[in-house]
Design brief:
The complex is a heterodimer of chains A (334) and B (296).
Chain A lengths: L1 H28 L4 H6 L5 H10 L6 H13 L13 H36 L4 H15 L2 H15 L22 H7 L3 H38 L2 H8 L4 H30 L2 H6 L5 H11 L2 H29 L2 H4 L1
Chain B lengths: L6 H19 L1 H18 L1 H4 L9 H5 L22 H37 L1 H15 L3 H12 L3 H28 L2 H8 L4 H13 L1 H23 L12 H8 L8 H28 L5
The chains are: A mainly alpha (334), B mainly alpha (296).
Chain lengths: 334, 296
């Protein structure tokens, strides 16, 4: 198992180097540049040259890349040109916000998707199954920002039940230890902040979690139906076990194998794909941060932020592979 | 002289008619095809269907200082913040979405199939080099990749099509390569090689037609994703800025300010996206089940 994990880890190294090279080349190829974005109307050739000299942007591109990578190796991702803050400090603020949103979305998707898939499989080709299939298809076909707008309009604007933007009421005070606001509220035993943070999470999490929910429900349905026809299930039934015990001990654990893979892959996608949801709900996470950096040509944020997202994406995929190999030993032998 | 190796083409033409038959019997796929057909017709005949051009503004005469009137007999989907007819804009918006879906998937297919076929056919060092490149591309979530490319190329319809198309390349390439590896082991390919057929013929006549099915399914589903991604880029302000060429995502982005007073502005373009994407998803699912009947 260790060999398998090491092999996968080694395979990820050239991918990450390639990604860093691609991201670096991309930022340098973007039209305009940080000096122009920073100086705006004051961007005279002399001022641009001064800013470029100051940030080392006048050096040959390979020298810049080499210097950047040697800094990255020591954990220094640079400093944002617009906010002047270190990228690692910004990441400490932004990354927990996106992870909190992505994990809540995935919690919602799993909590609703698996039971929905099991119920659909148990009533295969009946009305409930058809309704669930149509619902899943609609879920997959719904753009996340459209669903976000509908939810915002219905539950925040019309009914006024839930807040429409942000992570916490601005009037509330909360000591931030981890920047996971729900966790911080629990650590600080701040009940009001906990309820408020949870209320802020509901709409973005539901909007972001709907597509994974639909996918998980469909995969669970197919997997349960497939396992139900296996010999070991028939044998268990023949031995006189009740359907409930057969389902709990034999069908579900085996059907959840493909589901765990999908959950892992979708979590990786959610981490990086929250840009649109974060935009609708003004959620101060990674998505809005990187999107703003594109407009401002903030090289350091783009390089550091995207590299970080891709590293997380690759690590999550790696963990999914390893987790799957742990559950199903046949994978290791391939 | 090269001897013909007819077996796979006869077999595959029989298989193709089976697939078509199963597809025609699949209710979901037929509903999807009907939806797409209707939207294609609406896009083609848009100037004949809509009551006025989508860029016609009438801020002063129609809005009377209020944003924005809802449905009426003259304006079925109401008016937007500039007094433009929303129905006309939604119908014309189908043109952009369908165009991006078709062209971007075609771009993705052209490069993806070429890379996947080369990797699957040649194997060895060629395969390794191509697959490492594909791995790097796949390390980027596709929407982030598309945003990056649009930022690089600048806003515009062609730029969006290229960005979404390129982000599809690794998906098609990987899928085709996997399928080609399976086909490479089949006896008819071995016979074709033993008979000394030129590599191009083995690849194009014997391997590719038998390995392409999963890519066709993926391409149909990729059209659905392309429509969502186009709208997503538009929503983020990276879409087409041409007022004469309305795009559903841009329309949605413009409505966020009026969500409280005029939610219908978001509703109609949003529903148009959902219905079109649903059509492609239904057809793609049906196609997948028709190609691999075990799935149904």
């Amino acid at each position: 198992m260790l060999r398998f994990a090491l092999k996968r880890l080694l395979l990820a190294v050239p991918v990450l180097i390639g990604v860093s090279l691609l991201v670096f080349a991309w930022t340098r190829a973007l039209p305009g540049g940080p000096a122009q974005a920073l100086l705006g109307e004051r961007a005279t050739p002399a001022a641009v040259a001064a800013v470029e000299r100051n940030y080392g942007l006048d050096r040959p591109i390979l020298v810049q890349y080499g210097k950047y990578m040697s800094r990255v190796a020591t954990g220094d991702l640079g400093r944002s040109i617009t906010s002047r803050r270190a990228i690692t400090t910004e990441l400490k603020d932004r990354f927990p916000a996106t992870v909190e949103l992505a994990l809540s979305a995935m919690f919602f998707a799993v909590a609703a998707g698996i039971p929905l898939g099991v119920v659909a499989a148990k009533h295969a080709r009946k009305a409930i199954d058809h309704i669930s299939l149509v619902g899943s298809l609609l879920g997959i076909s719904m753009p996340v920002f459209f669903l976000a707008l509908i939810l915002k309009w219905a539950f925040a604007v019309k009914l006024g039940w839930l807040p429409s933007i942000g992570r916490l009421d601005v009037k509330l005070k909360l000591d931030r230890h981890t920047n996971f606001l729900v966790l911080d509220a629990i650590i600080g035993r701040n009940g009001t902040a906990l309820v408020d943070a949870l209320k802020h999470l509901v709409l973005p999490a539901v909007a972001l979690g709907t597509i994974p929910l639909a996918i998980i429900a469909r995969i669970t349905r197919t997997a349960v139906l497939e396992v139900m026809t296996e010999d070991f299930v028939r044998t268990a039934r023949a031995k006189g076990m009740s359907q409930r015990i057969v389902n709990r001990r034999h069908v579900l654990p085996n059907a959840l194998l493909p589901v765990t893979t999908v959950i892992g892959l979708q979590t990786g996608l959610l981490l990086s794909g929250a840009i649109l949801t974060e935009t609708v709900f003004a959620w101060g996470g990674m998505g809005t941060w990187i999107f703003d950096a594109v407009a401002k040509r903030d090289y350091a944020v783009l390089q550091g932020g995207i590299l970080f997202i891709v590293i997380v994406f690759v690590i999550v995929n790696l963990l999914v592979d390893i987790g799957y190999a742990l559950i199903d030993p046949r994978i290791r032998l391939r | 002289m090269t001897a013909p190796v007819p077996a796979p083409s006869v077999e595959s033409s029989g298989r193709r008619s089976d697939v078509l038959l199963r597809l025609r019997r699949n209710r979901g796929a037929m509903v999807g095809a009907a939806i797409i057909g209707l939207i294609v017709l609406a896009a083609i005949f848009a100037p004949l269907i809509v009551p006025e051009t989508p860029s016609k503004t009438a801020y002063l005469s129609r809005l009377d200082g209020r944003c924005c009137p809802g449905s009426s007999a003259a304006h079925w989907f109401g008016l937007d913040e500039l007094g433009r007819d929303v129905f006309s804009r939604v119908v014309f918006g189908a043109r952009v979405s369908l165009l991006v879906a078709v062209v971007s998937v075609a771009i993705g297919l052209a490069f993806g199939v070429a890379l996947g076929a080369a990797a699957g056919y040649f194997g060895g060092a060629v395969d390794s080099a191509i697959m490492r490149f594909i791995d790097i591309m796949l390390a980027f979530p596709s929407f982030l990749f598309a945003i990056g490319l649009v930022a690089l190329l600048g806003p515009g319809l062609w730029q969006i099509m290229i960005a979404i198309g390129v982000s599809n390349v690794p998906i098609f390439a990987r899928l085709l390569r996997g399928s080609m590896l399976g086909v490479r082991q089949t006896p008819y390919v071995a016979s074709a090689r033993v008979l000394g057929l030129p590599a191009r013929r083995v690849l194009l006549v014997h391997m590719l037609p038998n390995a392409i099915s999963p890519v066709i399914v993926a391409a149909t589903l990729a059209m659905a994703t392309a429509i969502i991604e186009t709208a997503g880029l538009g929503f983020l302000g990276l879409g087409t800025a041409d007022p004469a060429r309305p795009e559903w995502g841009v329309m949605l982005a413009n409505t966020t300010r009026y969500l409280q007073t005029a939610p219908h502005l978001a509703f109609f373009p949003g529903i148009a996206i959902v219905i079109t994407v649903l059509g492609f998803n239904l057809l793609g699912d049906g196609l997948r089940e028709a190609i691999d009947p075990k799935l149904s």
